[in-house]
């Protein structure tokens, strides 16, 4: 049983890397099996389709980001907002260190690539974004803001995605992504911290 868990995890982690560095559509089942060092039978034992694997990859990345959100749960609302920028910086910084450049947001990449061709995956990614927006909104509601909490929550999420995309295409560093998110938060707070 333990070997099965290890094989499944290896497939998911290998797919996460390949989807980030190459793209979902450019990676075939054979590529995934080679990268994970498993046979096709093992792949299909765990995942009836590549789309099912993509959902597992989305869930893997979402769990890491949500773990980072959880670490700031006991902080003040403003500190929780800034923690969002810190979480993005840590995740993107880890990608930058591993791949030598910003490779994009796992969710943004998949959303851009598949949202018009795979409705089931679009819905799965949209649910992750919705959970994040709700968590950001909860922090916004507790802060003293210059804008409506719903507006700022959506702006932060959009700023994250936009800055990651710009960093990816312009070759910017992960620190620049976080700095821009922090600026948005600081200028939206009535009493910047």
Automatic annotation (TrEMBL):
Residues 5-65 form the HTH tetR-type domain. This is TetR/AcrR family transcriptional repressor of nem operon. Residues 28-47 bind DNA. Pfam families: TetR_C_13_2, TetR_N. SUPFAM superfamilies: Homeodomain-like, Tetracyclin repressor-like, C-terminal domain. The keyword Iron-sulfur does not apply. PANTHER family: HTH-TYPE TRANSCRIPTIONAL REGULATOR LMRA, TRANSCRIPTIONAL REGULATORY PROTEIN. The keyword DNA-binding applies. Keywords: DNA-binding, Transcription, Transcription regulation.
